[in-house]
Amino acid sequence: MMIYKDTSKSIPERVEHLLSLMTTEEKAGQLAQPFGWQAYSNDRGHITLTEAFKTQVEEGGMGALYGTLRADPWTGVTLENGLSAKEGAEAVNLIQRYAVEHSRLGIPILIGEECSHGHMAIDGTVFPVPLLLGSSWNVELYKTMCRAVARETRAQGGAVTYSPVLDVVRDPRWGRTEECFGEDPYLIGELAAASVEGLQGERLDSTDTVAATLKHFVGYGSSEGGRNAGPVHMGWRELLEVDLYPFRKAVQAGAASIMPAYNEIDGTPCTVNEELLDSVLRQEWGFDGLIITDCGAIDMLASGHDVAVDGLDATVQAIQAGIDMEMSGVMFSRYLVQAVEEGRLGMEVLDQAVRRVLALKFRLGLFERPYVEAERAAEVIGSRQHKELARQLAGEGVILLKNEAACLPLSIPAAGRIAVIGPNADHAYNQLGDYTSPQPRVKVVTVLDGIRRKLADFASDGHGDIVGGNQTHAEQEQILYAPGCRIKGDSKEGFERAIEAACQADTVIMVMGGSSARDFGEGTIDLRTGASNVSDHSWNDMECGEGIDRMTLGLAGVQLELLQEIHKLGKKLIVVYINGRPIAEPWVDEHADAILEAWYPGQEGGHAIADILFGDVNPSGRLTISIPKHVGQLPVYYNGKRSRGKRYLEEDLEPQYVFGYGLSYTTFEYSVPRLDRASMTPEEFVTVSVEVTNTGACSGAEVVQLYITDVNSQLTRPAKELKAFSKIRLEPGETRTATFQIGAEQLQYIGRDLKAVVEPGQFRLHVGRHVNDTQWVELMVEEA
C-alpha cells in the first residue's frame, strides 16, 4: 500500500509521501479552487459533469471547488435547474468519483460552501442571520445551530464552510452588517469559539462536521465610510485589542481555516500582509491551518489595490505572504507553475502551501470517505428538528425596543380586527437575508403567515371556528392585509388600500424595514391588491447585503410616510422591523406604541414574531449593536474611548437604543453585586455574583451583563467593556444568582509594547441589564 493511503501512518507522514510524488502542475492544482456549480449540469434530474471540469482534473487536478451546491442569482442556479438535497449529494459523489478515479494520484476534492446562517443550498434550513443570532446572547443555542448546519452541509459532501464572520462592526451603513454578530469583540469572541466547536465537533473526519473558515481577517468591519472593502485606518493596538480578539479566540478553539479580508490596513492589503498572516497568525498564535483568499482577492492586488505589476506578480506576492489557496480565482492556476519555472517562486514555498491543503483533506477523512450517502442527505437537510431550532433561535433574538403602556403582548380576543401592513409583512425573501438560496414560498413563514396561523390555532382550540388548511370566513374578517408600499421607490399607489385596512382594524401591525433579497425572479407585490406579481421582474428592493452600502440609516422609500399616514388614524400602532442593519427613525421611536427589531429572522421568522406579539414567547433578545438617533452620530459604538468628546451642537453622543438593551414582558430586579474579596493580583481570580429576581407576572429570560472599567491607565481606555454575560431563565418570583469569574484576561489591555498587561490599580465591575443600567463594585488590583 502507498504510504499516503495507509491510515496507520500519521498525517504528516502521509502528506510528505504524497507531496514527494507530485509534479509541479499537480501541486499548483491543489491550490486552485474553481467555481463548483460550473463542474456539472442538471437536465431535469440527470446530472452530468462538464468537459471543462474533466479536463482540469486530468491535466493536474484542483484542490477544491467553491459553491458546488450554492444556489442564487449569481450562480444562476434556481429551484428549477438546481439540485435537491439528495441530488446535491449525488452530484458531489459524481464529482469526487471522477477526481479520484481519473487523476494520477486519486486526490479527493475539498468541497467548500457558504454557511453563514445555514447551508446556502436548495432545501437547506435558513436560520436567522448572524446579527439576530448574536442578539440572542445564547451561546449554547448558537452552537447547537452550528452543529445542525455542519450536519446538513456534510450530508451533501460539503467539507469546509466559509463561516463564521467575525468582523467587528464600526459603521452600520456597511451592507454586510447583517452577516456580523455586532460591535463588541468579547461577545463576538464567545460566539466565534462556539461556532468552531459546533461546526468542527470533536473531530473533522465525521459525517456531521465541517472545517470552519474564520473571516474576514481583519478589520473588514471598520472600513472608511462604511464602504465595502474600503481602507481601514487603525493602529496596531486597537487592531490587537478589538478586531483580532475574536479571531484569536476562534484559533484557540481549533479553527481549521482563515480567510484574509479584501481591505488594506495602513496601506497593506490583508491578502499580502505578512505581519498578520505570519507574525501574528502563525508565529504568535501557532495557527497551522489553511489560509484561503476571498473571491478575486489576488486579482485586486494588481487591479484595485495596485500593489502588484500584473497577475504573475500578484500571485507570487500572495503565496509568499502566506496564502495557501485561491478561492474561485484563476491567478494561482494560471501563474504558479510559471513562477516556479522562471525562478520567481521557490519550490519550498509552493510545497508548504500544498502541505496545508493536503493535511486538511487528511484531517477531514476525505481519502477514506470521499463519498456520502444520498439518502441520508434527504433525511437530514431541512429536517423538522432544524426547522424547530430556526424558530427557537428567531424567538430568542428578536428585540422588544419599545412597549408603551404594555401594548404587547396582544390578546387575540382583545386585539379585535388586526391590520397587517407593510412591504415586509408577506414578502418571504425579505426576511431571509443575503447569502440565501432560492426558496419555495411554502417553506418560508412570513409575519402575515404567522399571525394567521396563530389565530387559526386559537380558533381550533375551541375559541372559535375550527380551521383546517384554509382560512375561515371569520379569520379573513379578523385579519386585513395590505403591503402599502415597497421598500424602495416613491410609489404611493398602495397607500389607499393600506389606510382602508387600518381604518377597519382595531390593532395595526406595520412590518417595515429593509431587504437583502437578490433578484430571485419572484417578481414584486401588487400594491393595490397585495397579490404577488410574478411577471414583474423589473423591480429590486435590495438595500442591504454585500456591496449594498448606504449613506443613511433611515427607512428607504416612502415607508416613513406610510407610517405617518396610518398613525393619523389614532389606532394602536405596532411596528415590526425586518432589516439587516440598524434603523434610525426618531419619529417612529416617538410615535409607535411598540417596536420589535427582528433583523432577518429566517424561514421561521413569521412564527417567531407572532409568538412574541401574542405572548407565547417572552422577548429576550438584546442589542449587540448601538442604534443611533441620527446617522450623523456615527461612529456610535458603546466602547469608544472616554476621550471621544461630549456632544454635537445638534445632539449628544448617546444612541437611541444602547448596547445590551432590550425589554421584556416581565420585570427583573438586581441585588447589589458582590465580590468574594476586594483585591487581587494579576495571577489571581475574584468572583462577582449578583442575585436576579423575576418580579413580574410571567416567566422570562434576562441577559445579565458584566462590564469592566479600568479607572486609571497609562493609555486611554473605553469607559466600559463587556467582559462576561449570562442568559438566565426565571419563573415569576424566582431568584437566581449569576456568578462570574474575573482574572487577568478580563482586566488586561494592550500596553505600550503591544503586549497584554494588567496594570495595578482601581477597577470597577459593573453588572446590570445593559451598558447604561448597571451597579458597580470596586476591585483593587495589586502588584504581583
Automatic annotation (TrEMBL):
Pfam families: Fn3-like, Glyco_hydro_3, Glyco_hydro_3_C. It comes from the Bacteria. Keywords: Hydrolase. The keyword Hydrolase applies. Transmembrane segments: none annotated. One of its GO terms (biological process) is glucan catabolic process. Residues 702-771 form the Fibronectin type III-like domain. One of its GO terms (molecular function) is beta-glucosidase activity. SMART domains: Fn3_like. Belongs to the glycosyl hydrolase 3 family. This is Beta-glucosidase. It comes from Paenibacillus barcinonensis.
